Amino acid sequence: MWGIVVKIAIVDDEAKAREELQQALCSCGIELVEQAEMQFFASGEDFLAGFRPDSFALVFLDIRMQGRNGIETARAIRKQGAQVPIVFLTSSADYALEGYQVFPAGYLLKPAGKALPQLVEILRQCLPELSAVLVVQLNGRELQVPRARIAYVDVKGSRRVGGRRGCVVHLLTGRELAVDTPYAEAAAVLRTADFAECYNHLLVNLAAVAELLADGFVLKNGERLPISRRLYRETAHDYMEYLLRK
After folding, report:
1. How many CB atoms lie within 10 A of CB 92?
2. What pTM did the predictor assign?
3. Is residue 229 pLDDT above 70, yes or no?
4. Which of 30, 61, 89, 198 has its Cα between 20 and 30 A from that of 156?
């Protein structure tokens, strides 16, 4: 949906455990993960047969697999020079000390469905894409919107929820998300990134700008946004500084 495809490997010799982890990932509340491409392997041997260092963004490994166990599989991954985050699936801490020799990103207790808060924390730590997102509320549900996919944020067409007016997140694809999060809250987060307020209640992603004109911006998707006279000097300065940083 957002143009970012995260590939996740789940390696466990128990079909039920693989299914439980898949269900937990698909209901974790992080859309980037819920839309991920997940691949499943019943053994370490099956996984390693086609593994390349750049194959996956995240690997879940059951420690106590038959044949090549999770620790041995992780060692084989590291021998290839792959720095992919590895999360061990376990029902105990028996292998914890040995596991640290392969620098795991964490341990997740099975069944995964009962460790959802722990899983979400692991995902936030392991996937760099999630550190560059705008967290908004949509119909009472948390939504993670990658900042790089945002063209601009405004209030035109926004709706009121519980007495508060939300805002509209415009994506580079042209899609509009009328979210429950107030404009002020979204703007407070985005102003710390490469966003600038070019008009009243209109915040533009400077990375989405193709050209600065005398009265506004032309975006890379062809849209045009106005710049108020009051904010023009400051906005133009912010844009020039952005270009110099890049």
Report:
1. 11
2. 0.56
3. yes
4. 30
